[in-house]
Amino acid sequence: VQLQASGGGSAQAGGSLRLSCVASGRSSFSNYAMAWFRQAPGKEQEFVAGINRGGFHTYYVESVKGRFTISRDNDANTVTLQMNTLKPEDTAVYYCAGRPGSGYDDGYEFEVWGLGTLVTVSS
Question: Is 45 a residue whose pLDDT tops 90?
Answer without folding.
Answer: yes
